[in-house]
Amino acid sequence: MRKSQYVSMALIGAIALVAGMLSVATAAHAQDNQAGGALTQHKLPELPYAYDALEPYIDAKTMELHHSKHHAAYVSGLNKAEAELAKARAANDYALVQHWSRQAAFHGGGHYLHSMFWTIMAPPGKGGGGKPTGALAAAIAATALVAQATLPIVSGDGFDTELVTTVPGPELANDVYFSTHTYREDTRPEVLEFIEAYQAEYCRPPENAFAALGFDAVGMIVDAMERAGSAEGEALRDALAVTKGYKAVTGEITYSRPTGVPVKGVSIISVKNGQYKVEEVWMPEVE
After folding, report:
1. Which of 17, 104, 207, 232 has its CA 20 to 30 A from that of 135?
2. Quick check: helix, strand or coil at residue 124?
């Protein structure tokens, strides 16, 4: 596969995602404003938990100020910006249209991101708590290595990031073991071509396997479309369901299980003296 195809397939996925988000947002905004051209009155969302629910990690006063003052200011600013923007448009004052458009984007972004922020936290026992995984766990492990912890560190995917070696340095990056997708330190042509194309496009190597996973997801859809001869939903679904031996960057993929979980290799990787090494590649049996 040529480099241009890698970039094009990644762009297809990105464009589709952005287009979908924009179309949903545009439709929702238009629906809110249907009644006589009335402006949407944005409201401060209620928290899904009490102000003190995240203590001792975040105290109640901090939560109250962050929500009732800081987030509320974004909501107020967004409502004002949209009202002033409507006036500027009615007056054909393009300078003010530009100004209030920027203000609406700023306050709207703050409102949206804070609304999302509250939902990614939860009290222990209600969706929160537990052991960290992925990139967060990798960063914690790297910090432990900096502190010269001597115990072996074992984890799952998400540890295939340079943070494990760059934060503590190669002298301290020892006795780390993790399982992940068959990607890092792999010399298959699919892997080498992907890394080369990624570096050419972004002037840096992929940070971890998630870049390759995103590429593989788009690649599998394109492969299914070609086999189905259609992009229609049911035909695409049926083609994906019978995928066999797809040579993805993160390993060869076959769907043969009733659960829909693909049969795919898993790499066991060690880090010693800052160097990654594939200790073993485990292949599940094809059902």
Report:
1. 17
2. strand
Q: Tell me if 170 sits within 8 A of 198, measured CB to CB.
A: no
Q: Could you give the CA distance from residue 11 to residue 218 in angstroms, rounded to a whole number?
A: 9
- Report how far apart the first and last C-alpha atoms of the chain are (Å, whole number): 29
Instruction: Classify residue 17: in a domain, yes or no.
Output: no
Please tell me the distance from the alpha carbon of residue 236 to that of residue 224, in angstroms, as a whole number: 6
**Residue 156 belongs to a domain:** yes
Of 48, 24, 25, nearest to 108 by C-alpha is 25
Q: For residue 6, give Cα distances in angstroms to 40, 183, 192, 214, 227.
A: 42, 16, 12, 11, 19
Residue 32 forms part of a structural domain: no
Beta strand 153-155 with 176-181 is parallel
Residues 213 and 92 in one domain: no
Neighbours of 28 (CB within 10 A): 11
Q: pLDDT tens-digit profile of 58-88? A: 889 999 999 999 999 999 999 999 999 999 9
In a domain, 13, yes or no: no
Decide: 86 and 36 in contact? Cβ < 8 Å. no
pTM tops 0.85, yes or no: no
